[in-house]
């Protein structure tokens, strides 16, 4: 389906609030058919959009009904589309607003700049035609009125006649209305010393205003906004700035005079919101092209493209990027800069960061610290605290390093240790160490160098694990047990879960590896087999029947078969 037509239909559906059948103008349907869509495709597309639009409309209505009945109306009496709807109608599908820092706030669907209508009326709010005032009088007299400001700028109070309020702030208008009501209510607050009648004036319905947004925005044009709308609200409705639009100098003109200049970076980086002024009827918002862009890469917290004003320095750019990361090299940075028809590399030292002026197209690279230690020693193996240690005046020999690691564990293979030393060309050399001799004083201690790695092997690392295997008619078949000194056949059977009911106790075999091959050099035997019987208590009985309670101690790699 043509994407343009789909977006056209979507814009029409989202921006209107009447039933769907009347929402899509006939010219849009004709355009869709001209693009090749069938009636069935148009109907399915309308049904799909109806479900989405209805859900959004229900959400907005519910949220407004909970807190207040204040509404926004157009001059024609229709409900004004939300800023979200206007923004979505102007947002191309899949548009991510590039990678320039700050532009994403206008495309982030989780960040809404919809004006809050449920706040107390600002005292500085200027009334105009279309506003509706809520006048409450209480005390000795009671009166509740909802009066709309006429195109002539007046409200009509019963029994008083028209009162001019257009151009007045809500606070000034309240004083004027109080003064006029005092003509018919003698006890109104402020008119006599014994006043016990009071009046308050607030907005029950605010007017809509038209604002012109031009320049480098996604969708320039004239927008209908609530009279509470601010500059951010207007930019949000227009889809934000485009690929060349500036975030640093957005201007607002009122009656041909500049009244505000917004720097979005002040809001994003410093939380300053004072230039986000409230807009008025026929205000002009102008977004100019950017002055400078600079790319920041490397060990900073924000690797982005940043918009710069002329004259901003390297220090300011680094602040925009969130500063250095913990592993950044801070003494100097490199900048790639266009110089005529070629590029140049500039190295800027730390003392020049505050004065080095950035230029358009600059690319900043922040390096990391070199992943090399100047004073590291490493010890591994049979010590209590293996790891990395500092090479210093107190630790610079093999013995001192072993002592720093809390000494040997006791399972060390003391006959030989190794030092792996890094050569200047980054090759390595292995140096044998008589660890026993050094610790006993029989051999001279050895000086260490940066990046030396001392490895003291454990006896357990130099041999295969000692185990005992139990198989046959036991409950845990083929159990492999870690070898322990003084482990007996009975112990091994118990650790394998005991005997099964089908176990034959008259023949228990223990197979043992032949380690002394000289004794059996004329045979092919690899194991020696011992046979035993078991009594009711799992005790061994020798096969000659003459000796009971035989104790047979197992050795590493013995295999017991029942």
UniProtKB/TrEMBL annotation:
It is found in: Cell outer membrane. Residues 296-345, 378-424, 469-516 form the Soluble ligand binding domain. Its main location: membrane. Keywords: Cell outer membrane, Ion transport, Lipoprotein, Membrane, Palmitate, Polysaccharide transport, Porin, Signal, Sugar transport, Transmembrane, Transmembrane beta strand, Transport. Residues 120-184 form the Polysaccharide export protein N-terminal domain. It is a multi-pass membrane protein. The keyword Membrane applies. InterPro entries: Poly_export, Poly_export_N, SLBB_dom, Soluble_ligand-bd. Residues 1-22 form the signal peptide. Residues 210-287 form the SLBB domain. The keyword Ion transport applies. It comes from the Bacteria. One of its GO terms (molecular function) is polysaccharide transmembrane transporter activity. Pfam families: Poly_export, SLBB, SLBB_2. Belongs to the BexD/CtrA/VexA family. This is Capsule biosynthesis protein. It comes from Parabacteroides goldsteinii. The lineage of its organism: Bacteria, Pseudomonadati, Bacteroidota, Bacteroidia, Bacteroidales.
């Amino acid at each position: 389906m043509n994407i343009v037509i789909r977006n056209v239909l979507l814009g029409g559906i989202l921006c209107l609030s009447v039933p769907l059948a009347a929402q899509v103008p006939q010219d849009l349907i004709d355009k869709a058919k001209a693009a090749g869509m069938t009636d069935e495709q148009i109907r399915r597309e309308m049904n799909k959009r109806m479900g989405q639009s209805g859900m959004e409309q229900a959400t907005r209505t519910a949220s407004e009904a909970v807190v207040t009945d204040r509404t926004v109306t157009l001059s024609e009496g229709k409900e004004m589309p939300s800023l979200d709807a206007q923004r979505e109608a102007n947002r191309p599908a899949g548009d991510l607003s590039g990678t320039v820092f700050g532009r994403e706030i206008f495309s982030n669907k989780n960040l809404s700049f919809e004006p809050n209508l449920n706040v107390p009326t600002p005292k500085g709010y200027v009334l105009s035609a279309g506003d509706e005032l809520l006048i409450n009088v209480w005390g000795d007299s009671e009166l509740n009125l909802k009066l709309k400001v006429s195109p002539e700028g007046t409200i009509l109070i019963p029994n008083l006649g028209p009162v001019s309020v257009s151009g007045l702030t809500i606070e000034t208008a309240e004083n004027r209305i109080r003064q006029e009501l005092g003509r018919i209510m003698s006890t109104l607050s402020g008119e006599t010393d014994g006043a016990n009648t009071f009046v308050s004036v607030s907005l029950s319905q605010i007017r809509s205003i038209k604002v012109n947004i031009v320049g480098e925005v996604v969708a320039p044009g004239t927008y209908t906004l609530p009279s509470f709308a601010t500059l951010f609200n207007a930019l949000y409705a227009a889809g934000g700035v485009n690929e060349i639009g500036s975030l640093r100098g957005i201007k607002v003109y009122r009656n041909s005079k500049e009244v505000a200049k917004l720097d979005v970076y002040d809001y994003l980086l410093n939380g300053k919101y004072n230039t986000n002024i409230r807009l008025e009827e026929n205000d002009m918002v102008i977004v100019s092209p950017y002055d400078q862009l600079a790319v920041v890469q490397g060990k900073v917290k924000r690797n982005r493209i940043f918009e710069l004003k002329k004259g901003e320095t390297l220090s300011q750019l680094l602040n925009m990027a969130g500063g250095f990361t913990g592993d950044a090299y801070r003494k100097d940075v490199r900048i790639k800069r266009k110089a005529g028809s070629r590029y140049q590399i500039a190295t800027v030292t730390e003392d020049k960061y505050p004065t080095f002026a950035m230029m358009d197209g600059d690319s900043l690279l922040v390096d990391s610290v070199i992943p090399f230690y100047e004073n590291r020693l490493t010890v591994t193996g049979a010590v209590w605290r293996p790891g990395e240690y500092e090479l210093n005046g107190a630790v610079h020999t093999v013995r001192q390093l072993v002592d720093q690691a809390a000494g040997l564990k006791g399972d060390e293979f003391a006959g030989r240790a190794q030092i792996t030393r890094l050569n200047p060309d980054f090759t390595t050399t292995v140096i044998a160490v008589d660890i026993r001799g050094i610790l006993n004083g029989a051999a001279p201690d050895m000086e260490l160098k940066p990046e030396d790695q001392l490895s003291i092997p454990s006896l357990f690392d130099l041999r295969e694990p000692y185990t005992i295997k139990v198989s046959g008619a036991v409950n845990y078949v083929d159990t492999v047990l870690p070898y322990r000194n003084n482990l007996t056949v009975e112990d091994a059977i118990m650790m394998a879960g005991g005997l099964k009911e089908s176990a034959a106790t008259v023949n228990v075999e223990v197979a043992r590896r032949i380690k002394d091959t000289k004794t059996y050099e004329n045979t092919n035997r690899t194991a020696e087999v011992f046979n035993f019987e078991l009594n009711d208590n799992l005790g061994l009985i020798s096969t000659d029947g003459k000796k009971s309670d035989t104790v047979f101690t197992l050795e590493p790699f013995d295999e017991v078969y029942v």
